[in-house]
Amino acid sequence: MIERYFIAFLIGRVSIWMAGVMLSVALGWHIYLETKEPIYLALIGLMQILPTFAFFIITGVVIDRFQRKYILLICTVIEFVAFTGIFIAMLLDSIPILLVFLMLLVHGVARAFQIPSEHALLPNIVSKENLEKAVAITSTVSNLAKTTGPLIAGMLIALTDRYIYGICIIIVLISFLAYLFLPMFKIHAPAEFGLKPFLSGIKFVAKKKILLAIILLDLFIVLLGSVEALLPIYAADILNVGPNGLGLMRGMPAIGAVITGILLSNIGPLRHCGKLLFAAFGICSLSVLVFGLSDIFWLSLIALFIYGATDMLSVNIRFTLAQTITPDAVRGRVSAIFATSTASSNQLGEFRAGTLATAVGPIGATIIGGILGLIICISGIFKFPMLWKLDKISDLRNESNEFKKE
Length: 406
Description:
15 helices
């Protein structure tokens, strides 16, 4: 592992993720207090995911054809513009919702390229032998940002109110400085023309059934079980814990993820990975169900903790599996598909939660999501037996060599 490059990568990733989490917490709180409409919480997520859908076919090609370092730097500059626009908007007496949503779209454009670029870059700066551990460390540190981000956001909202967005801008600048220290890499993508380069990633995923399985399972389980968009409602109207309680609730999934990540980074390669993955999906859905039924703050926190811990286990298995069987020539395109799926499940999950909460209430929306997640998890065991039977991820390493440039 090239330590200084990996450290620069971690600092850049953590900073930009922390800024994003703080932005999400603050906007959820301020916009809900101003409007008292759950649908606006749904739209916050939707504005960020729309660019991912709009660009996902070209993002992978761009990542495979151009220097990933430059892509990350450009994305950070775009993030700076978006955060600055939101900060200016939030300084006004009445929040200009349309302007905020426009800046969220700009923010979403940057994320559409940034997330798959980060996924594709990691195998370039660590060896294959250290990849699983690097995934655990990266996810752990990122989730540490997700832990401290909401907690800090809750305190800063209470102390500085809308000036929290200015602090987010400073954090974005730290990310830009860190990415400057990343090295340049040789580009392995072949010179393809026409539609072929755009379809290569989709074709590769379609051929690898186990890859398609983990994408679909994560997409639907997280999409249906996402609860983060509803946390401002729980904090303000159900559990009555205020902005500090909101920050704690937003941080609990990340705390669970950090502890799980530390454990994963200090143990050897996992065995029975398929069964562990389905167990993570099932327990995650159960935790959503418990959260929806709970009106006790500490029990809700425990449910969110378990939600984050199981999600971390799932992320570690899925990401390591994907990077192990994907050759570098199409890694950007496959990473773009993964990033689109992940962003879709998270952001569309928030949109689903917000819109469903408008119809059946936040508690009903959460319970329905947990039940449907359990049904999909159980169905997936029978639908994808090859994933259920998977033992060690390293057993799949030779599959990346089967990819042929046509």
